């Protein structure tokens, strides 16, 4: 850096020299001294007359008169120049100023008639001394002298000023600790330079004034010479200023900039970087603040001084513009980043007048406009006025149009900031509404809209659409996005251009539809819980906001336990600016678990939306068409310029509709919906008691509501199955009631007759009768029910067939719930479980005969194989059921972790260390045992076992089909193919859609490879030839 | 003021109407029905495959171009051999028959040396009721029962009846498993 500065400096010096001397060529007095450039100014002057006299005869050998005239001229020249010559400041130290003053006094005292006489001779040389052929303009001589003096004497002094300052510390002041010191230092550099320049200029102007006063005296002799005295003065000043401003050392300009930054920053409310620590960001400064006033005064004074010494040339103006530009950016980011609601409710009456056009402007915009007009533009005006004092009659330095331009610039920056923040704004909906107002007011051009959609899509990809986010999270964010962008742009064009990527991604999430449907069907309790969670998270956030204000509000690194990150209901953290710009949605599992211990997380927002009246008004297509042709609509505006082909103006937000539409085709959705519906209808246990009539009132309000909504969307016919399902459940309640009453009567009769098999009759048994054709996923799972239950089933069947002749019941044994009472040795356990689980635990019941001599009998012990033989049940189901009972503490696994043998845990205290005995009976024979398992089966209906039964069968079928596709493809299309191509072909060729991701397909193929049916060669799969 | 707005409304209204018309007038891409039909056929082939024949769209992802495989039926000279075929479906399929070629060289009375097949259902007897699977099964049966009255390969037709042993040799000579491109 210093080297380049030095070379630049030398370069400039050379240029100055060259600009000084070439004009000397035709000057008689200085002509001979051109070879003695290195000589001092004093010596050169001594030589002038001698040399010129000596050379003259050579040039004009025959003109004696002319020689006399020339001599007189030269004498006059000498007198004048001696009078206004600049003092040689050989030492060049800081005594320069006083020295100048001294010489000034000397000169003033010696200002005599002699000078004016000689001056008159010089000026009127043509008239008075016609013989003097070579004469010169004393003014330009003065100019040359000044320039030479400036370069040789003043500039080293200026450089010394800067060097003194630069001696310590870094040049840009990165070191914050030294900040104040730096400011002082920069100020000192600037002030010293100004003082030096002021002294020098005083000197130069003294000489000029002498000459000008000479002209003034001559006014009567040669009026034309006196006339342009004023313009001469101006020209001299202009030249001098150009010289100063063009040769000012870079270090000086740097210091000027530093000083400008500090003062303007203070005036415009940008906090000092060194003091930012504990306080908040930039704010609109209070004009009454003494500090601000002092800074303003200081800045203007400084500008005036700089202007006086000629340092406010283009470089200064550029500098000032840069500083103001930086300050505007800093103010916008600092004051408004992350501020989406008015923090400062102070009424801005001043701003009201200007924002007539922005009548509905958000607080941020109002504040920003106010700042620009009353602070930013004011400062610019003041400083620029200072600079251009010389021509007050010229145009105003800052016109009203300029102010408008500043405002639009500032708004543009605000827009850029908000675009950056848009993802977080969407997450924080609806608290971020004011920020959207900012955006709406600032997003005015197609280019900015494009910037917005691009930026937002990128943010989506980076922060939402990755495997780390649950589908629920994505959908929840999607809802926020829909509402946010709709608020931003009611025409939905922005939304539709943003959501494409999101929709594509959601289609890959298989559980998306399930999440949506579950959310739609959420019950009021869950909604309430959701509301509470939301409230608490809001409180938490506010608290955190207060705690963290200033410390880590925007710049802090988000810690793992940051509450912003942990509210699963409302992910509303903000992007930490600078440090970690891309925080994926994440949440603390502990926190989530505690908040959702009662209800698993659901997309409850949808259910809440469903209850909003505005959402229920689904716009029918015809309505839309009519609205388009509404000639009287005075608020009509053309479609946005970036709207696509076939664009239609939507009438309402319609979040639900948008989400459903995003999930792909209606068929898939309806299919999924009916499955979820079936689950819910079956899992509803409202009729599990004998008083079936009380609960006979339909409790499917929510379901019916959703159904109605979907019907409006997809048409009545496509949802017929769901209608049937609901009616089935309601009908079967009635039928069940009748059958049960009938059986109760029968029982009563039997008791009256004295026959009493009470043991088997005190079991409640209810059923739901489903229409086979309309229920999805009702596959029969075969297993043997306990004989008691089977008996009940038979009786029920008989009752039904007597009620509805020529109809038969097919029992779906796996779809049922049962309440089981287990009497163990030291406790009684009552569990609600599935029929499969009940059947399995029933198998552990001690055979009737042995029930009494329990003292010696070991607990019943069975393995999966035993149970398989006994129950003819699917082994996976058995294993799952055993696991369930082990979890309930009723069964205990014996024989180590690998074994699949279970034993009844008769007492809670585990007498036998698990794993130590391999299959041997526990040796607690001295304890009396009483084991009685009473299984009270209730109702052959309800939720399918999770992960069992129907789902796995469907999955197996799917795998089979896909395998055939793979075989067909590799047999015919190409013998070997890479994974991606296979997945692509499957996706393209399978008519109802390929349900797997590439990874799932890869896993599947890996299984086939392991089974020896396929092989991988060179990254491509192929079939093994048999 | 109000006049200006209403005139604006008018122009936009007509624009909107144009858009709508444009939307409805969107031409159906040729071959779209054929693709749909072929997708369905593929699904049927996969769910209920016939023994000894299989077919699949070609690897370039063009649904109008398929590749198929026929295993030579037992008790014929072609037993134990597999034959690759190509199907090119016209865009008005199934109202026109596909062009079927043997890609594997085959010695057969009704197939010429460049793989072209003489089979009535692939020519004038084609109806939309046929599909890929029925064509493949017909071809499979053609292997066992050639139509020697209208041969493309006269020598083969002759040898079929006269010298089954030589025929078999010729079949084995001619047959060559082709590698996939």
Task: Give a brief rundown of this model.
Chain A: Residues 528-545 have a biased composition (Basic and acidic residues). The complex is a heterodimer of chains A (1026) and B (181). Chain A has 1026 residues and is mostly helical.
Describe the structure.
The complex is a heterodimer of chains A (1026) and B (181). In chain A, 59% of the residues lie in helices and 4% in strands. Chain A has 1026 residues and is mostly helical. In chain A, a hairpin with a 2-residue loop joins strand 8 and strand 9 (1020-1023). The two termini of chain A are 77 Å apart. In chain B, a hairpin with a 7-residue loop joins strand 1 (53-57) and strand 2 (65-71). Helices cover 40% and strands 13% of the residues of chain B. By secondary structure, chain B is an alpha+beta fold. Chain B is globular and about 50 Å long. Chain A binds chain B through residues 628-629, 631, 633-634, 636, 638-639, 645-647, 961, 964-965, 967-969, 971-977, 981, 984-985, 988-991, and chain B through 2, 5-6, 8-10, 12-13, 16, 19-20, 22-23, 39-40, 42-43, 45-47, 49, 54-59, 61, 63, 66-69, 84, 179-180. Chain B: Keywords: ATP-binding, Nucleotide-binding, Transferase, Ubl conjugation pathway. Chain B: This is Ubiquitin-conjugating enzyme E2 2. Chain B: Belongs to the ubiquitin-conjugating enzyme family. Chain B: Residues 33-180 form the UBC core domain.
Summarize this structure as a short list of keywords or feature phrases.
heterodimer, A: 1026 residues, mainly alpha, 3-stranded antiparallel beta sheet, 39 helices, 9 strands, 59% helix, elongated, B: 181 residues, alpha+beta, 4-stranded antiparallel beta sheet, 4 strands
- The radius of gyration of chain A is 48 Å
Largest sheet of chain B: 4 strands, antiparallel
Biggest interface between chains: A-B, 31 and 36 residues
**Strand arrangement in the largest pleated sheet of chain B:** 1-2-3-4
* Low-pLDDT sequence parts of chain A: 20-61, 90-105, 167-177, 274-279, 343-359, 548-598, 615-624, 687-697, 756-760, 912-950
Mean pLDDT rating of chain A: 68
Count of DSSP strands of chain A? 9
Instruction: Calculate the mean pLDDT score of chain B and round it.
Output: 79
Q: Categorize the overall geometry of chain A.
A: elongated
Helix content of chain B: 25-40%
Task: Tell me the number of helical segments of chain A per DSSP (H or I, 4 or more residues long).
Answer: 39
| CA gyration radius of chain B, whole angstroms | 25 Å
Strand pairing plus helix content of chain A: what structural class?
mainly alpha
Instruction: Report the strand count of chain B.
Output: 4
Number of discrete helical segments of chain B = 5
Region (Disordered) (chain B): 1-31
Keywords (chain B): ATP-binding, Nucleotide-binding, Transferase, Ubl conjugation pathway
Pfam family, one (chain B): UQ_con
Biased composition (Polar residues) (chain B): 1-21
